[in-house]
Structures are given as structure tokens and as C-alpha cells.
Amino acid sequence: MRYRYHLNLAGVLYLAVTLLVGFAATIRPNNLLVWIFGLLLGLIVISGLISGGALFRISMRRLDPMNGRVDRPMIVRYAIQGGSRFIPLFDVRIREVPSRDADSSDWSTFAAGAFAWVMHAGPGETVHAEAVFVPRRRGRMKFHRLEARSSFPFGLIGKSVTIERELETLIFPRTCRIRASAIEKLLGGGIGGGRSGPGTGSIGEYAGLREYRPGDSIRSVAWKRIRPDQLPVVIQRAMPSPPRLILVLDLRRPTERLRLVEGSNHREQEEEAISFVASIAETAIGLGVEVGLRIAGTSMPDLPMRGGRRHLGRLQAQLAAIDLDSERLDREIVIPPPNVASVVVVHVDRVDPSLGHHGAWHLLPANLAEFAARPTEGRAPSMQPREAGGTESDNGEAAA
To answer: Given strand 290-296, what is the order of strands in its sheet?
Structure first.
């Protein structure tokens, strides 16, 4: 812990007046001046003792924050407990202290400063406070030190306590809502899906027969197959399997070697490609699609095709953890055949049809505006699946 005292403008003015009164009482001793000077000094001592005693041995800790998202509020909660058994806490501000080193992962490079406020906490009582940060970029966000500051009761002398508390959290990429019709087009069919899964249930295609068990629906009994000397037989049907989608993010080409229009921001183009993939994944999983992720050019593991909010969190965490400054690798990406899953490849600069099978979709960050959900009529995505003999336009967009 590090303890410090602080003087604000009001404290400086008050101290100057106190010195003037003390100087006057020294030159021309007067009972009234001496009493006033003593009162002013007493207030300074009381202010320092109360604020300092309340913060002495204070306990501060962060409650693990949820993962944040670019341009969305992220709440960081704190648990505060005073160390004094007699002096309560009043008017305490908790803030994050920026790192002294030039650390690109420090929270100050992600969001503007914010503070949490504690109005009152009794001796030995634990209270909770929260601060709201709005991250501006994606990546690993680190907190290093906490500071508690109070100038109660007169606002003249402040006392601060700094504690080392390191914590790291992930900031997910920026996402926007994709039109359901666009997801259907990428899947090559309806959202409902038409494949049969390995499980069995009461709906779907015919899968076989089995003996009746207590609890089976009477509607599933195969009445035409029942003889007087035979137990009831139940029809088993295959459960429909949800549609599947593989997202491939092409990051094989380093940032400085991207083939973009002169004057373009290469790093921003890469971030837009990551946001495009995150937006498709978020909307598709929300519609019941099983989504997998492949990131070409990095050593990050492939994520299998799954559905649900927990799997969406894993996908977003994978995209948030991408380090664009690391060395790019030319490793092979396993792409399933068209009859297993639809494939969407998002490139950064230009389309490379060698990544993915003949029915794969190849998109660029510029296509996000076409796929985003907005009130437009009669407008459909201009991108079509790449064929084996497709060509590439001059500006790098896929051509039919």
C-alpha cells in the first residue's frame, strides 16, 4: 500500500489564510487572533486525521468483471471494507490507476477513466461500488492498481491509498445485427434445416421401430403392426439437426503487406474483418445455427460447430484474443465438404478462392453494410458463392 496526502485548491487557499492569520498573531499577539489561528490549525488536523484514519488499512478488491465489448458499457464492481474499527468511511472515490510503463494492454489505452463512489461504510462493513468503462478497441484489457481517495469532512486535505491489484479481461469485437435473410442465403436454405441428426424423438423422418415403454406417447404407437399376441410397437423418428456453418477468417497476410487502396488503414481493415465474423456468428447462433470457427494465419485452435450462448462466448473470446502483431503462419485449414456445413470465408484485402471448397462464400469487410439489419426493401447481398472458374475484380471484391 502507498499512502499520500493531497491539497486541492480549497485546501491551498485555506492554508494561505491560516498562515496569514498565524503571521498576524505572531507580530501583534491578540487573544482573538491566537484563538482563530488555533481553530484553523485544529480544522486542518481534524481533516487529516479523519480522512487518513478512515482509509488506514482499507481493503479493496475487484469482483471479476464480465467480458466487455467495443463501444458498449462494461461495469467493473468493487468490494470496499474500511480498516478502522471506530472511524467509518465517507465520500470515498475508487479509481483505476494507469500503468507507469508503455503497456499497450493497459486499460487506459482501451477506455477513458471512470471512478466508483462510496457514500458511507460503517466500521468493518463491506460495501460494493461500480464503475462504468466504455472500451474503444478489442483485445486483452489489464488493470494494475486501485486508488481510494477521500477528503472528508471539510474537503481541505485529501488522503489516498494505492493498492496493487492486477486483473485481465477480454474485450469482445464490435458486432452488429445481421439480417436473418442474409444468414439463410449463406446457409443455402432455410433456418430450420433439413438434415436428420443422430438422436431420436417424436418428430422428423422415420428412423425405426421399438417396443412400447411406459411414458411413450400414444400417438407414436404403430397400430397397424399390432397383433393380439404382440406387445405395442412404437415408431421412432429422427430428430432434425440444426443447420451448420463454418466461419473462416483469413489473416494469413501480415498487416504491412495487405493489398489495399493507397491511404487505407490496414489495421482498421483487419479489425473490421474480425467484427464481420463476430457479427455473423452472433446472429447465426441466435437463430439456432451451429457455428464453427477457423482462423487462418494464426496458431489458434479451431472451434468445433456448436450452438448456444456459451459457445458464442467461446467464439467471441477467440476473436478477442487475436494478436495482429504476432507472426502470421501458413498452416493448413481443414474445411469440411459442402454436405457437412456451409462455409463463409471473410478476407481482409482480396478474395482467395483456394481457401474453402467450390460452394464457399467469400466476403470482404465492405460487405458488412449490405448484410447489416436495417429497413431496406428490395435489396439483397450482392455476393454470390465462388465457383471454380471465378475471377477477381480490381478492387479485390469477389465477382460472380
So the answer is: 303-306, 290-296, 244-250, 342-346, 361-363
Note the Cα 254 to chain centre separation in Å: 25
**Judgement on whether residues 146 and 286 belong to the same structural domain of the protein:** no
CA atoms of 249 and 360, how far apart (whole Å): 13
- The residue range of the domain holding 142 is 1-172
For residues 223 and 362, the model is more confident at 362
User: Same domain, yes or no, for 213 and 291?
Assistant: no
Query: H or E stretch including 181?
Result: helix 180-187
The model's pLDDT over 185-206, given as tens digits with 9 standing for 90+, comes to 898 854 544 454 454 444 556 6
Is the N-terminal amide bond of 153 cis, ω within 30° of 0? yes
Q: Specify whether 115 is located in the same domain as 204.
A: no
- Look up cell 483505476; give the residue: 96
Are residue 152 and residue 221 in the same domain, yes or no?
no
Pairing of strands 233-241, 195-211: antiparallel
Please, are residues 289 and 305 in contact by the beta-carbon 8 Å criterion? no
Entry pTM: 0.74
* Same domain, yes or no: 59 and 154: yes
If one compares 1 and 271, the residue with the highest pLDDT of the two is 271
Do 47 and 63 fall within a single domain? yes
DSSP state of 178: B
DSSP bridge pairs for 77: 63, 130
